Amino acid sequence: MSGKVNASKLALELIKDGVVLGIGSGTTVEVFLNLLGEKIRSEGIKIYGVPSSYQSMLLAIKNGIKIVDLAENEPEICIDGADQVDSKLNCIKGGGGAMTREKIVASASKKVVIIVDDTKLSEKLSIPVPVEVLPFSYGYVLRRLSKMCKPKLREGSGKVGPVITDNGNFIIDCDFGVFEDPKSVEQDLKSIPGILETGIFHAEMIDAVIVGNSKSARIVKK
């Protein structure tokens, strides 16, 4: 059994009847939602969801979750994945391009649990940091970023040209190499007008990380 499945199964134990769930995005969240759909059907429970992307919204609907929004609901728990998690539980997210809405949903939630397989663990953060950028500001932002890191516009595989987020913006992936101070990196990035959000999720936002492998899963807390 995959690490994603085992992590998702352990996360399911946190989900109770009637909960308002913040829903992240990505392949691990897809596994989790499909398992949650089985739980909903077998136990006859009701789950309300605030999705962070069109992908998670469609998956939630498919699995019997009632869609609600942040205007009237505060999620009791948010379940999301991550692209990398360091030893202090800082995360990099945004491989799926939904980090802005993911960060909003996570910030609005009373509790945030990240689910990953053990291949996503690293002593320090090192993968490129995605940033969401207003298209109008792209040229200016790229010049500013070039002085800080190795920036690269993310281009689509199913269409010609750049990936467009659910918010209608571009994504630039910023390669800083290995870095130890996520807060400082995020502050530098967000000081550039035109950058809306980054894929850095500080450990202070995260209540727990569930790590799965082929045999089991465990909960890691700060």
TrEMBL record:
EC numbers for this chain: 5.3.1.6
Keywords (A to Z) from UniProt: Isomerase
KW Signal (keyword) present: no
Pathway stated in the Swiss-Prot or TrEMBL entry: Carbohydrate degradation; pentose phosphate pathway; D-ribose 5-phosphate from D-ribulose 5-phosphate (non-oxidative stage): step 1/1
Source taxon at top rank: Archaea
GO MF entries: ribose-5-phosphate isomerase activity
Catalytic residues, chain numbering: 102
Reaction(s) catalysed by this chain's protein: aldehydo-D-ribose 5-phosphate = D-ribulose 5-phosphate
UniProt cross-references to Pfam families, sorted A to Z: Rib_5-P_isom_A
Cited InterPro entries: NagB/RpiA_transferase-like (IPR037171), Ribose5P_isomerase_typA_subgr (IPR020672), Ribose5P_isomerase_type_A (IPR004788)
CC annotations in GO: cytosol
CDD domains documented for this protein: RPI_A
Binding site for substrate: 25-28, 80-83, 93-96, 120
Family listed: Belongs to the ribose 5-phosphate isomerase family.
Role, per record: Catalyzes the reversible conversion of ribose-5-phosphate to ribulose 5-phosphate.
PANTHER family: RIBOSE-5-PHOSPHATE ISOMERASE (PTHR11934:SF0)
Subunit structure: Homotetramer. Homodimer.
Name of the protein: Ribose-5-phosphate isomerase A
Species name: Archaeoglobus fulgidus
Phylogenetic lineage: Archaea, Methanobacteriati, Methanobacteriota, Archaeoglobi, Archaeoglobales
